[in-house]
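User: I'm curious whether this sequence folds into something compact or stays loose and floppy. Could you predict its structure so I can see for myself?
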Amino acid sequence: MTIAIIGGTGPQGQGLALRFARAGTPVALGSRDATRAAEIGTELMAQLGPEAAPITGLANEEAVKAADEMVILAVPFAGHNATLEALKPHLEGKILVDIVVPLAEDDPKKVTMPPEGSATEAAQALLGPDIPVIGALHNVSATTLKNLDWDINCDILVCGNSLAARKKVMALVETLGVTAYNAGGADAARCIEAITPILIRINISKQVPFTHAGVKIWAPDH
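Assistant: Here's the prediction. I'll summarize afterward.
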């Protein structure tokens, strides 16, 4: 099953492409610049062994068409709605996995939520009810994703209005060796997306002896 990653030439997109390809899932890496996407795809494949699935760099629209079902959106929030407007005609029959966080332009330690409440809800409102939008992978460090010597050190909270689509995204995400949790409807993204700037604040703090921390769901001892 080929997946598309739109905004795939950015840090998170590249990290996810590496992880999914290593896990055996072919990736169509989408960018506004097809030539740049092809170059990045070649560079990423050079980091992987021969057993990895292919990463192919394409223009955004072609990447969406190449996806069997799953399309991951990994663009900066400033380009979130415009990208979806352009791709909407090609998303019929697909599931959009929105990993975008609306970080404040002047301070990544804060969020500026859109009127809909979250980036995930904004995407669902823009695409309409027939294209399921699932929020996931909001709280994973791009640096961690790109370093294949590290395990992904967090759990993944997955939300969206379609339960069937949530379950499919959870299964896909778990191929990366992480635990995915069903966090409920799309409105849960308001909380999940807002965790990211808190993690950024903690990770850049000089008072904290680590970086690239994530969120874990801990079971009680009793």
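Summary: The two ends are 41 Å apart (CA to CA). The mean pLDDT is 96.
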